[in-house]
Amino acid sequence: MMDFAEILTGAALLSLFTLTLMEIILGIDNIVFISIVVSKLPEEQQPRARTLGLVLALVFRLALLTTIKWIVTELTNPLFTIDWFGMEPLGISVKDLILLGGGLFLIGKSITEMHHKLEGVAEDNREVRANGFANVIFQIILIDIVFSFDSILTAVGLADQLLIMIIAVVISMIVMIIFSGAIADFINNRPTIKMLALSFLILIGFMLVLESLHQHIDKGYIYFAMAFSLVVELLNSRIRGTSEQPVILQDEWHDNDPD
What we know:
Elements: H1 10-26, H2 28-38, H3 46-66, H4 68-73, E1 78-82, E2 90-93, H5 94-119, H6 125-158, H7 162-188, H8 191-212, H9 219-256
Antiparallel strand pairs: 1-2
């Protein structure tokens, strides 16, 4: 057992802060996915589904942390090997299969949602109510498992004390639960932002597929690209809002003009 006093040192606190910040950043894609999937439910069910989804994510992360030694050894051992046309053989492990399945699921789900938005496919509310909640929770569980691996492997790389990892995961998940509603409203109330979020999920899914093939891509590039796109869209929205105002004022002035 580790003494709690050990996390009160300067190095441990710095490690805790850094890991908590990284867990929050890595959790953004989880929140985006949950927000989009949950938006199909009736409004009164959405907060409960979001909270339940993030609580399940916390449970998965804590469970994986307690079995971190088994994950690092057993789940990363190759199950079989693929020869790449004369290139170095690629060993595929359980972790790789989970990342591959999760990446393909994200890509397929995001493209389907894009298709519905672009084609204006209407949803049957009765079908959503009948199958929605259980189906949404099932999808959240699947993607939570995939994102949990990413989160835990990052925690292992940034900290070497289990208690620090647990505290960082708990704090980051509490922060995400608190702000998940505001993030969901921000995404779902703005069609262009929702399309950006779906594009972001496609990129994350593609990155997971590459990770399963041992092709590492720095996630910071994806976050930077999406942050830049978000800033540009917010500026465009502001410009559209200000450019429409003089036209309205001009129409009102002509209506009040006696000539």
